[in-house]
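Write out structure tokens for Zinc-dependent alcohol dehydrogenase family protein.
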Amino acid sequence: MKAVLYESFQRPPSLASVDDPTPEPHGVVVQVGATGVCRSDWHGWMGHDPDITLPHVPGHELAGTVVAVGRDVRNWRAGDRVTVPFVGGCGACPECHAGHQQVCEAQFQPGFTHWGSFAQYVGLHQADLNLVALPEAMEFATAASLGCRFATAFRAVVDQARVRPGEWVAVHGCGGVGLSAVMIAAALGAQVIAVDIDAEKLALARDLGAVACIDGSAGSVPEAVMQASGGGAHVSLDALGHPATLENSVLSLKRRGRHVQVGLLLADQARPAVPMDRVIGWELELYGSHGMQAHRYGAMLDLVRSGRVSPDRLVGRRIALDAAPEALMAMDRFQGVGATVITQF
């Protein structure tokens, strides 16, 4: 099969011919219909993820069709249209037994712990636990954006932040995760403040439901959020993953507010300073958010079916597999609006 492969970190990946995957007894092989190009893939290519073993095929936001099934799989057949969370569970550890596959002790992450979906085919593990059936009407490009950006935002807004109607929600960073969070929080009845330094992304955030937009390069972000919300946000999310946006998010909260860290902080930014004086004095709550379990996809897909959110609006540029190496290397430049998705293999 054709796949994007890199044999050393920070060196240009290439389009290569590699062996087709075969299913594990508990797994399946999926013919990839679409796969997103995400900043997390860029972090992996940079060498920021210790789970990656070289040579490596990246890609973790995927949707496609089952083409081969392991002997122990009971719930899936060839021809099924599926997607998968970017974090899958092992099914055997205490966290999996408690339903928390997103923090599984032996988690499976296509594109990180194993070869990923920048390829014509990808092998997926523990299929009966981790796969999600796709609605027939949902195209693969839209479904691919669910696996990381939209699902991550859904869990952050709904399960971790517990956003309620009428609350003020600040979203710092309007990339794929941030715009998804804007859309979801607005659909829940929140008053959303979007923060970014890109005017085009802020314009889309407003179209997706933000009631206020703040240029993050034009002065103090916490002061601007305080003013827009009349005293601070009930919930603030760092959807980018940077020490500055983390600090801005915490300082944007009202007393007893809730910060959710969604964007990854890796490499030399992995242990940033946090304004703990404010956290303690104002009794703020701090949460991490790491993907979403397959069993929570039903609630997210119900919201999509209701028409209150439209994740297809977040699909941006569509490219072929041979354009993926350049797109991957450019992810640190935050170019374009919406998700770049590989749709031609």
